[in-house]
Design a protein that fits this description.
The complex is a heterodimer. By secondary structure, chain A is mostly helical. Chain A folds into three domains: 64 residues, no CATH class; 139 residues, no CATH class; 218 residues, Orthogonal Bundle (MetI-like fold), CATH 1.10.3720.10. Chain A has a three-stranded antiparallel beta sheet with strand order 2-1-3. In chain A, helix 9 runs antiparallel to helix 14. Chain B is mainly alpha-helical. Chain B folds into two domains: 155 residues, no CATH class; 235 residues, MetI-like fold, CATH 1.10.3720. In chain B, helix 2 packs antiparallel against helix 5, helix 8 crosses helix 11 and helix 13 runs antiparallel to helix 16. Chain B is flat and about 85 Å long. Classes of the chains: A mainly alpha, B mainly alpha.
């Protein structure tokens, strides 16, 4: 048998074949006999490959569908219509801003349900309307003081429990002890429903408000602004620094120990866990330099250090793809090395660098672990107005809401996730388009 | 003048200096035709003026702001009444925080008395003086530098060479930032970790079997005295990472093999970007997904089978982390498999091997070092991953390898120890830095080995 066995599998088949039948010892028969089994193995292997891909794509779609399915109801919020009497006794002209607007809501509710007299029942009744309703009334009055003395129908935000009930997340038929709302409250809501005084509307609050302890008043605008400010700092610092170091390492640096060290360093930093950058930020920026906690400035600095390796690596790859003939031509007509880089190599490499930067920014936008370390995890209601105001960012907002116990926050978290993913998709799509549009094959 | 306006003013001054320098150069050259008598193009004279106008002032600006708050704080402390100044450092820090909150108009935790109000006013006043002084000094510096350069401009000034030299220095400085970052990480983590090891012996930290970092804050408080044995934390980390690798390695490797060896171009060009979406999803989203969808699913499945599954089981966190790492494994394996020369495959086919036999017995062994390197990188990423475990894994440091029970990880402990208010001297806070040091060292070793293996391997076939 001169034929080399390609694998252990063939040994097994040759054992029984070696005994009686004379013609079966021919190699070709051994091979032929093993063929069906080998083809089956081939098919199986292919199937595993396809299976792996399908499985990971299934995970992906499962993730998207479950988040979208949980998140889309948050785009609507429940409102209750009350006829509010703007009582001149409550709204004194001299103290309009500090008047007790909650009293107007309570008066209107008591008027609708005069049978409610018990203290506890009253509290349940008043609890149907969000505590944010008072602010809405205050804004109405401050905008137009003429409404004082009139009775107007006003749509007010309902409490998050009402919202959940209307959206069908609570089972109305369950026994009273098993749900968050008691029988009275459900009866009142049903009366609102009968009068067409309750309806779902587009949830503008979600896109315009800052964080809140009340789910119906919480929004992502504050976190979005925080993310935006943080990313501006990151972009302004990391793009020039990243491009500059890529240019130095690729075009100017001599090949020696020092540049080798820098290179190993950059590759390592790209793989250091992001939380370690948070520890660095905490120890250096907050404790040593005394920069303010929770500020987009510090967040941007930490994210800069984190994204720099990504941008440097992408920029170097992009510089490498510019053919040497361009450099030689520029040098040949008398350009200095710096002129060659600035006038010829850099413009050709820029699209690739921008693509890398956008991808780095997308990573920075989704990053939250290092920001937890520098205090961007605080509960912040106000919309940040500057780089040193306390702020939080979108992914940290998601983390904060995911920890909140109210059912309504699950919806908000999913909706905020959708917003974050939408931003990321836009950024990545921009990177892909940029690459397609400007990529040159030399 | 607020720092932001000052920064804008400096940038505006610098661009003004550019035009100033260029005009001066043209004026020195004489009539328009005589530009050729200049050593460099006029823009270089402008750029030189702008650089000298902007950069020293910006450096001053940066250094000033970096140290401003520390200096002002120490000045304010020095001016506090004696009874406040002699307080222990942690109490003093609380008071300082309140003063700073007063200054920025935030909510103050304690009551505001007159001394604190006075201190806050003092702080505000010093801050105002500092900002005004900075504005004056920086703007004077910028204008003076610009004027000096302007008067030095002659046709013989080698402006281009100057500009290029300065640019090179800037480029070198930018490329060393990576090194400074590493040094910064090592120093900051090491410094706090050493302080921790002064209180807790290293051996107890490395080999202790009990982790419960809660310390009694007051002497009379009943509570745990704190145990800082990191073994349970590391076992938990390894358990979750192990589950993640069990998911990610087979799926990632098989999909890489299929994409690089079997798939046609069209399938490859759609499937590959789709799989890479998995890598682009923020980890906090995975964490939310794990905690909200996967963990309840596993718990229900477990109770259906009669198993007692913790609601924060290691399995849920590990599974989701595995999904996150799939594209990581697959893209590195894909690169490595593509780097195997076609001649090896052709040789195998010519001996009559089927495609899968070729892959299993020729391509994979040839690519193995690179694949192992990629897997090492993936392990280092799994160990350092934070948000998924913070949201889906537990806090209790159980020393167990049962994937259905709750375990905790290094990153979870770092986050829980450092988020929120802390005092910086207690071993509890410092323990986070010790864990951080260990995490950094472990991932560093894994990364260095992996990068070395991958690079070595790539060179082999190039």
């Amino acid at each position: 048998m001169w034929f080399v066995n390609t694998g252990s599998s063939m040994n097994k088949t040759s054992k029984p074949a070696a005994a009686p039948a004379a013609d079966s010892t021919r190699t070709i028969d051994l091979v032929n006999r093993s063929l069906p089994r080998r083809y089956r193995a081939e098919k199986r292997f292919r199937f595993y490959g396809i299976g792996a891909i399908v499985l990971s794509l299934l995970f992906l779609s499962f993730l998207f569908i479950s988040i979208a399915g949980k998140g889309y109801p948050a785009l609507q919020n429940t409102f209750i219509e009350l006829s509010i009497y703007f009582d001149p006794d409550v709204l004194r002209q001299d103290a309009l801003a500090t008047a007790d607007y909650g009293k107007l809501v309570k008066a209107s509710l008591s008027q609708m349900f005069p049978e409610v007299t018990d203290r506890r029942e009253k509290r349940d009744l008043y609890g149907l309307v969000s505590s944010g309703a008072a602010f809405k009334l205050r804004n109405m009055v401050l905008k137009d003081p003429d409404v004082i003395g009139q009775t107007l129908p006003v749509w007010l935000t309902a409490n998050d429990d009402v919202d959940m009930l209307i959206k069908g997340h609570f089972d109305r038929t369950a026994s009273e002890s098993e749900r968050r709302m008691n029988d009275n409250q459900i009866a009142w809501i049903e009366r609102f429903e009968k009068d067409n005084r309750i309806e779902k509307r587009f949830n503008w609050t979600f896109f315009t408000a800052g964080d809140s302890r009340e789910p119906e008043l919480a929004g992502i605008w504050g976190a979005t602004v925080g993310s935006f400010l943080t990313l501006i700092i990151t972009l302004v610092l990391s793009f020039p620094i990243g491009v500059a170091s890529a240019i130095y390492l690729e075009e100017f640096a001599p090949k020696n120990r020092w540049t080798d060290l820098i290179e190993v360093n950059i590759n390592n930093l790209a793989a250091v866990p992001s939380i370690v950058f948070g520890l660095l930020g905490l120890a250096v920026f907050l404790n040593f330099f005394g920069l303010p906690r929770s500020a987009p400035l510090v967040g941007g600095l930490v994210l800069t250090l984190m994204t720099l390796p990504t941008i440097i690596i992408a920029s170097r790859a992009s510089l490498q793809s510019v053919p040497p003939s361009i450099r030689e031509a520029a040098l040949g007509v008398g350009a200095s090395k710096m002129q060659m880089v600035a006038h010829h190599v850099l413009p050709l490499a820029l699209p690739g660098m921008l693509t890398g930067t956008i991808i780095g920014m997308a990573r920075a936008l989704g990053e939250s672990a290092p920001l937890l370390m520098i205090g961007m995890v605080a509960f912040i209601v106000d919309i940040p107005r500057g780089f040193t105001d306390p702020a939080t960012v979108l992914p940290v907002q998601i983390y904060l809401w995911a920890d909140s116990p109210e059912r309504a926050f699950v919806e908000l978290t999913s909706a905020a996730t959708m917003v974050l993913l939408a931003f990321l998709i836009v950024m990545n799509a921009a990177a892909v388009i940029l690459r397609r549009r400007f990529e040159r094959r030399w | 003048m607020s720092p932001t306006t000052l920064l804008a003013a400096l940038l505006a001054l610098s661009s003004l200096a550019y035009f100033l320098g260029r005009r001066r150069a043209l004026a020195v050259a004489g009539t328009p035709g005589n530009v050729k008598t200049l050593h460099s193009r006029p823009t270089y004279y402008g750029a030189l003026t702008a650089i000298w106008c902007g950069i020293p002032a910006l450096i001053l600006f940066g250094i000033w702001l970096a140290f401003e708050s520390n200096i002002i704080t120490s000045l304010v402390v020095a001016d506090l009444p004696e009874n406040l100044r002699s307080l222990p450092p942690d109490r003093l820090n609380l008071i300082l925080n309140d003063i700073k909150n007063l200054v920025s108009g935030n909510i103050v935790s304690g009551s505001i008395d007159t001394t604190m109000q006075a201190a806050a006013d003092h702080y505000r006043q010093l801050l105002g003086i500092s900002h005004a002084a900075l504005a004056v000094v920086a703007i004077t510096l910028a204008i003076a530098a610009a004027l000096i350069v302007r008067f030095k401009i002659t046709p013989k000034l080698r402006a281009r060479n100057h500009v290029e030299k300065i640019t090179t220095v800037i480029l070198v400085f930018c490329s060393t930032i990576a090194i400074f970052t590493t040094i910064g990480i090592v120093l900051s983590v090491l410094y706090e970790a050493i302080r921790f090891f002064q209180k807790i012996p290293v051996w107890e930290f490395l080999f202790g079997l009990k982790w419960s970092p809660q310390m009694a804050i007051r002497a009379d408080q009943i509570g745990s005295s704190g145990a800082f044995g990191s073994v349970p934390v590391f076992v938990g980390t390894l358990l979750i990472s192990g589950i993640a690798m069990l998911v990610a390695v087979p799926i990632g490797l098989m999909s890489a093999i299929y994409l690089s060896e079997y798939a046609d171009r069209r399938f490859r060009s759609t499937a590959k970007p789709l799989m890479e979406i998995l890598a682009g999803i923020p980890t906090v989203v995975y964490g939310f997904f794990a905690a909200l969808v996967v963990a309840p699913l596993i718990r229900d499945a477990g109770s259906f089978l009669g198993l007692d599954v913790s609601s924060e089981s290691a399995l849920a966190a590990g599974l989701v982390m595995g999904i996150m790492i799939i594209p990581f494994v697959s893209s590195i394996s894909d690169d490595v498999i593509n780097a195997v020369p076609q001649s090896l495959r052709d040789g195998s086919y010519s001996l009559g091997a089927t495609k899968s036999e070729t892959i299993k017995q020729v391509v994979i062994p040839a690519a193995l070092p690179g694949i192992v390197g990629g897997i090492l990188l993936a392990i280092s990423r799994a160990i350092g991953e934070t948000m998924i475990v913070v949201m889906a894994a537990g806090l209790a440091a159980n020393l167990t390898v049962n994937p259905l029970s709750a375990v905790t990880t290094v990153t979870v402990q770092i986050v829980t120890l450092l988020v929120g208010d802390q005092e910086f001297d207690s071993p509890k806070t410092l323990a986070a830095f010790a864990l951080g040091l260990l995490l950094f060292v472990i991932t560093l070793i894994l990364n260095i080995i992996a990068l070395y293996v991958v690079r070595k391997y790539r060179e082999q076939y190039e």
